[in-house]
Structures are given as structure tokens and as C-alpha cells.
């Protein structure tokens, strides 16, 4: 839960406001206590929309809709006043996560839980349809999970089938990925009806069983095309529910069962009811119980005035005077324990950053663990500290976030990113001419895709977050991009470089580095130019996934188009013996070798190559830019050249001030990707500063980032209008060589630009 904004009233129509659950383009949702003592989710319309007669009428219809629906599985209507100067609507507060959040955090639900979930949601839709309404936006984010069963929420676009207020031919209303074909076509009132909700219910249940939407993820037009023309992906769904889901997902609305029929089909006598407190798996039950406990503790909290702009904010860590705060690797200031989800034990930086200095008192205002969800909002732990931030009190604060791997396999890179971002925020906030203060929110996803998706959900739900730097790994990036893209929250990456990410995050993703398919141009230039190689051997290690085939495939294509000899070889990720592949390369006449893979298996390959006495040029992309490659390969690593989208600031002209500041703050030289993260943060601040205060929104910031050219210490960042990819301007790729048992920076690479 966010503290109340200074402009927020203390109460509305007798409801005492406790804090903000969330905010969107149309209004704010507060957690409030009614005059009778009940907790409610109170939606208040923004003043500018309250003056719009058409919008007020649509809001009135939402209120009327909730009044008409009577179902134990629909969030209950409490009170409303659509005619008030600031129209408001109160519904019962449900202390539980959304289905989307639960699946992202803990994976798919077991079949018994999904049967109970489906039965109750079908009953909710049966009651909605009996009231003469169509919900039109049934999706995982609009399903809350409580101990006694699910609740269907958000009736903002629910309508009677004959109501044309939001229905016009060619207009698509709802959420892509959960839309029926007739909704995709933008059909009129005769086309969209109760079967449309049944189709969406089938999508939701498939998502709950598999953890993925049945029509995939990606660009909106691709989702809409699949819904109309392709069969749903039900791989992994047990046979019995799969047959029911296929009927729900029929393209022809007339062939789908009614909601009542779905409820009866799922009402198997041997299964427990959804109101059984054990209907959810243990991990999700604990999440729901923790949030209910936190809600129960609210009456004991004394009202506290908090100046939101005084020092910035860092959920999950306190905020320093420079606005950067402690980070996700820090310690819990209240008890000195490692913060949940933070770095592994023994992280020296975490110990240093977690210590509170004199006059920096931290207060934990809300305990109970986790977050309380209602109507798509979130009630989270938040902290503040007095005694700091006087210099920024006169300026508004804007939040950017870093999502990084701070505790997993890529934690070295993640920590480098964290340090670069923190220095950039500190430097920006120290500027006397800065029109606002930057507040930094740090989240550790451990490089795990499921955890990364849950983290992205948390950050998108926090309306104060205007941009995100990260994540560290490409697997995490692939998991989070659909989440950020739906929220149009700009995500700026300096390490994830797969080309397909530009498609998954088509609207909001910005690759502030050359993508992987550009690196082979630099490898080719080095091997065929500097090293004088005539025939290049290319090893595609399938264990490296997309990284391997992007490097190997592009290099093979580049050499083939130029008529240059090469010897390609693909190695299965299941085997660790590289001997046969090396023998094939050498017998094919290769006098140089490119390994398209990652550090662990790269070290094995280097040793096997060394054992055969190969002394020709050896090269790789940034998958080998890791001290662990050098350590594991030993003397076999000597002479390897690595092309990477990262430089060494200590050896780069123009980065002297950054290097000195990094050494002063962290007592260490900057690692690869620290300076790149510093520049990415500067890019965001530069674009944000170019926007008028009233236009500093996520969508406007995305456009501003893509439309600007920013000169950082590592490179000039500029982007194409089409998708936010880096332009091929000959910068951003650098060469490293293993010399004397360590990685040494040799300077910028020179690309071979296709003519």
C-alpha cells in the first residue's frame, strides 16, 4: 500500500482513507474503512474525467452493473455516488492475490484447485448473465483468490448485450489473449454475448493449469490472429478438463456451453468445494493467509503524515538522501536480517549498504508479509525514514526501478548494473538544476523466469514506477516483457539482447545495446581482418539456447553471403564431450574457431581444443565474458577474444569521472555492464526531463526514450522509430582478450556492415 498523497483527502463520504492500493489513467483506488468499520476498496474518478459527461455516464453504468449482480463469487458492491463532484465506488476488500499473480509467483495450480476455481467462476458468470449482462473482460488479473473461493472483479466494461455504448463494428474491447473471436472482429451487439465470457473463462482455466495463455504471448495483432484462426495450445492440460476447455474455446459461439453448463460439468462430487479453505495449494494458501493477517492488523495503525516527495522511496529498502536507498541485496533495517529475496549470505556490499547511519531511523509501518490485492491494486510493505531529504523537498519525485539478478548465477552482472544505476541516480539528484528527484526501487529476480514475471507484475502494479532498467538475463527478459508491454511500462535493457525480445515487448521494450545478431559482424571483422583467418569453424552449443543460434546462425549466414569458407557444427546440450565436434572442425580445414555458448561449457570446449594443440584464433560473444570462464579453462583460456556489448570504463577515454566515483563509493573498479547501466539510467532521466510535468506518464516516457538521442559515457544511444532497437552506428560492441589469466579490455570493435 502506498502512503496517501499529500493531495488526497482524509476521508470520502464517511470512509476513512488508509492508503492507496493503486492508480491508473482514470482514477485512484484507495484502501478505506467504512463508517461501520469494514475495509473496502474505494475507486475515485480523477477530477478531469468527472467533468466529462460521457465518462460519468459510463461510470454510472458500472455502478448499476454491480448493483444488479448477486453472486457469492462476484466482489460485493458496498456503496457508490456516481453524481458526486468526485464520483466514487466502494466494493468489499478481498485480501488475496489475483490469479495472475499467484501463477506467476508459484506456478500453475493443481487440477483439483482449477476444477474448484472453474466451477465458482462459471457460477459467477451464470449469475452475471442471469442479470442480463456480459462481463467482457474475464482474465487472470480480474480473478482474486480468497480462502473461501475466487472473486470476479472489474465490471468497468460489463454491458448488456444490446448496449452499444462500448460496442461498435471494428472496435475491440477487452484484453488480447483472452478475447473471443467475435470480440476480435469488433462485432456489434448481436455478436458479443454470454458465450464470449465462456470463451474467456476457458482461456483463464487453461492459464491456471499450464501457466500460459492458450493463444500465447507477444504482439497484440499476433494474439488476435491466433484467437480467430488457430487452435488453442492445451499441451499439459489433463484429458478430462481439456475436452471441456476445447468446447469453451470453440470459434463458433453457438457451439460453446453456457456458464451454467460449465459449472455443472465441473461439479464432480468427489472434489472439494471452492469454499474449502484447503482448495488452493499450500504456497498460495499461505500467501492469502498472510495478506488477510496484514489486513486484520490495520486497525492498530496510527495515522501518520508522510511527505512523499521528501526523500524519494525504495520499497524493500530504505531511502538515502540521494534518493537511491538501500537495495534488494540489503538488510532489513528493522531487525538486521537479510531482506527477503535479497542477495546470498556473505554479500559484502549488502552488509555495507544495509547499515543505517546516524540520524537515519527506519520505521516499518505495516507487517504481515506479502501484499493485499483488491481490484487489481496491491497493498505492500513500505518504509520511510526521517532526517534526510531536505534538499529534495521542493521537487517532485519520480520513481524508476531496477530489476536484476542479484542472487542467482548472473549476480556479478546484476550487481554491476545495480552499482551503475545507483551512481546515476545519485548524480542526477545532486544536480541543482534537476526539475525533479529520482527515487530508485530495486528488485532481485534471481534470474529465475517465474520469479521475474512476479516481480514485473509487482512493479507494473505500482503506478509510481515510470520506467524499469533490466532484467539481467535473457530468460528473465522473455518472461517479463509481455507483463511490461501490457502496462506500457518502458523497460530498458543493457544485457538482454535476443532479437525476439523486440517482438515480445514491441510497444515498451528498449534495447540499449546492440542485439545479439549484430555481434557476429564484429567477430567476422576480427577473425578475417585482424587475425587473418581463411576458414572459420563455428560451434553452436544448443545448451545456450537462443544465444547460441543467434551468434552461430548469423555468422554462418554472413560468411555464406560473402562467399567465405566456414565449417559449422551443432553440439547437443545433453552432452559435454566436445571432442567429436572439434575433430570435425579441424578435418574441415578450420584455422579459427568461434564458440557460440556460455561460460561453463565454453571452458570445457576451450580445454578440449587446447588438448588437441590448436593455437589458431579463438573467439566468442559475451557468453564467455565471465571470470568463471577464465578460472575454469585455466591456461586454455589464454588468447581467447570476446566481442561484448560492454566496455571497461577504467580503460575508456571519457569515463574517468565515472570510474573514480565508482571506486570511491564501492571501493572497487567498475565491472562490465556497470557503465552501460549508468548510461541507461541517464537516458531515462534525460527523456523524462524533456517532458512537461503533466506529461510524465509511462506511455509518453516510452515515446520520449525512443525519440531521443542520448550521449552517454559508453556510447550514443539512438533508436529506430519502428521498434526501439539500437541503430547500427558502429558503437556499443567492444573486444576483450584473455591475457595473463584475466580478461583485459582491448578497445571498441570494428563491424563489418553488410553492403
Automatic annotation (TrEMBL):
Pfam families: Peripla_BP_6, Pkinase. ATP binds at residue 43. The keyword Nucleotide-binding applies. Residues 15-280 form the Protein kinase domain. The keyword Transmembrane helix does not apply. SUPFAM superfamilies: Periplasmic binding protein-like I (SSF53822), Protein kinase-like (PK-like) (SSF56112). Residues 304-358 are annotated as: Disordered. PROSITE patterns: PROTEIN_KINASE_ATP, PROTEIN_KINASE_DOM, PROTEIN_KINASE_ST. Keywords: ATP-binding, Kinase, Nucleotide-binding, Signal, Transferase. It comes from Streptomyces sanyensis. This is Protein kinase domain-containing protein. InterPro entries: Kinase-like_dom_sf, Leu-bd, Peripla_BP_I, Prot_kinase_dom, Protein_kinase_ATP_BS, Ser/Thr_kinase_AS. It comes from the Bacteria. Belongs to the leucine-binding protein family. CDD domains: PBP1_ABC_LIVBP-like (cd06342), STKc_PknB_like (cd14014). Gene3D superfamilies: 3.40.50.2300, Phosphorylase Kinase, domain 1, Transferase(Phosphotransferase) domain 1.
